[in-house]
Amino acid sequence: DVHHTDGSIISQAKSITKGIEDDYNKAVAIHDWLCENIYYDSDSIDGTSNTAPYIASDVLKTRRAVCLGYANLYAAMCRSLDIPCNVVTGYALGVGSADTEWNAQNTTTTEANHAWNEVYLDSRWVIVDTTWDCKNKITDGNAQTDKNISHLFFDSNLKFFSTNHRITEYLR
Questions:
Q1: Among 29, 89, 82, 39, which Cα is nearest to 60's?
Q2: Rounded to an integer, what distance in angstroms lies between the CA atom of residue 72 and that of residue 152?
Q3: Among 82-86, 92-96, 132-136, 143-147, which range has the highest average pLDDT?
Q4: Helix pair 7-16, 23-37: axis angle to 10 deg
Q5: What is the pTM of this model?
Q6: Residue 58 pLDDT > 70, yes or no?
Q7: What whole-number distance in Å separates Cα of residue 110 and Cα of residue 66?
Q8: What contacts 5, CB < 8 A, 6 or more positions away?
Q9: Among 62, 65, 109, 128, which lies 20 to 30 A Cα-Cα from 134?
Q10: pLDDT, tens digit, for every residue of 132-146?
Q11: What's CA 110's distance to the chain center, in Å?
């Protein structure tokens, strides 16, 4: 699902990071590009449209995804530039449920309802959740563009991130 050898992914990643020397700023540029150009497909979650693509090259083509698509494309773009990146699945509060705080059920569940990345930059693993930083949405068949990119979930500190995310599995 994370085909970082796909020609379209390689050329897009190189285009996004043209002129940027260090991996950290390349990772930021890829994050920002995804947040500007990919739309979170709310319709595919509530069943009013076809399932959003999750394979990286399909997400790049259609420009729509839900969390796993964002995470797979982010990982593929980073990897195509030789930046190590993992896809992480886990449980996040407020995703597809009314959960707003941690409790006995959701802290022990093996169910995953969300996906994000960990990318290796400056000799450490950095947490990145492009889905939660992206404001573009598709709702009722309408694409709403919001260029206000957040960086709240780029290089998020673990204590803050853990207030609403919990890892269930690493997909290398």
A1: 39
A2: 20
A3: 82-86
A4: 110
A5: 0.88
A6: yes
A7: 20
A8: 80
A9: 109
A10: 899 999 888 889 998
A11: 20
CB 94 within 8 A of CB 108: no
Contacts of 42 (CB under 8 A, 6+ apart): 137, 138, 139
Residue 107 has what pLDDT?
67
Residue 160 contacts by C-beta under 8 Å, 6 or more apart in sequence?
none
Residue 96 pLDDT level (bands cut at 50, 70, 90): low
What is the 3 state secondary structure string of 38-100?
CEEEHHHHHCCCCCCCCCHHHHHHHCEECHHHHHHHHHHHHHHCCCCEEEEEEEECCCCCCCC
What pLDDT was estimated at residue 49?
Answer: 67
What does the pLDDT read at residue 48? Answer: 67
